[in-house]
Amino acid sequence: MSRAVADGCGCFPTGRHYAGIAHLLRAVVRGLAEEFAGDIDWSEIPVACVDVETTGRDASVDRVVEVGVVVGRHGEVIARYNWLINPGIPIPEEARAVHHISDDDVKDSPRFHEIAHEIAAALAGCIPAAYNAAFDRAFLVNEFGRAGHQPQADAKPCPALRRDVDWIDPLVWAREIHREEKSKALGEVAQRLGVALENAHRANDDAEAALRVLYRLAADVRVPRAYGAVMQEQRRLALLQSDERRFWKN
């Protein structure tokens, strides 16, 4: 959400009806990466779309077994990264049935702390994004926390690892733009938009599909072009959608 800030006295919440003080007010949008101006077209900024495959759904105890990062700019993919990770705990059968990653597949893979700097480097200088971002973000933040990751002195800033930076979430936009469609699952939304997803529930494939879905959804006039505006509108929609889900549960 945004809030109006009065540089003078702060007496009015908006300058719309007070033309004489409109020049004293400025809108502040929360959740932006400070490296990027709020009025820039967000498609001009590198977007790092993240997907994680895990041992379960609880980020506080479950662990990451695969990370995919796909970076886009101007609507095109410009970089892809993928890591298989040894979680240090057995992969439950329920999780393996989803992503088909077994204990044998990761037994010789590095632990998260060994490649944390590589993942941070892939995310650096980008707006973070993920489909159902709260899930992937929680796992990534917890893994970096366990790893005790400290950015290198010469490393680029990494907005994805800062708590005050919101992630772009294509799911929020799919729920709005495909409101009349029953399923908002990534595979179903991708199919409707003509985006290929051959290996669902593998990190790199899901991350790329989510990025391409984001760019296809962004062609809709309801998606603002300015970075600040798109994040402000996403926050508003997410709150409305959360209220709607609570209503239907009660």
TrEMBL record:
InterPro entries: Ribonucl_H, RNaseH-like_sf, RNaseH_sf. One of its GO terms (molecular function) is exonuclease activity. The keyword Isomerase does not apply. SUPFAM superfamilies: Ribonuclease H-like (SSF53098). The keyword Hydrolase applies. It comes from the Bacteria. Keywords: Exonuclease, Hydrolase, Nuclease. CDD domains: DEDDh. Residues 46-223 form the Exonuclease domain. This is 3'-5' exonuclease. It comes from Pendulispora brunnea. The lineage of its organism: Bacteria, Pseudomonadati, Myxococcota, Myxococcia, Myxococcales.
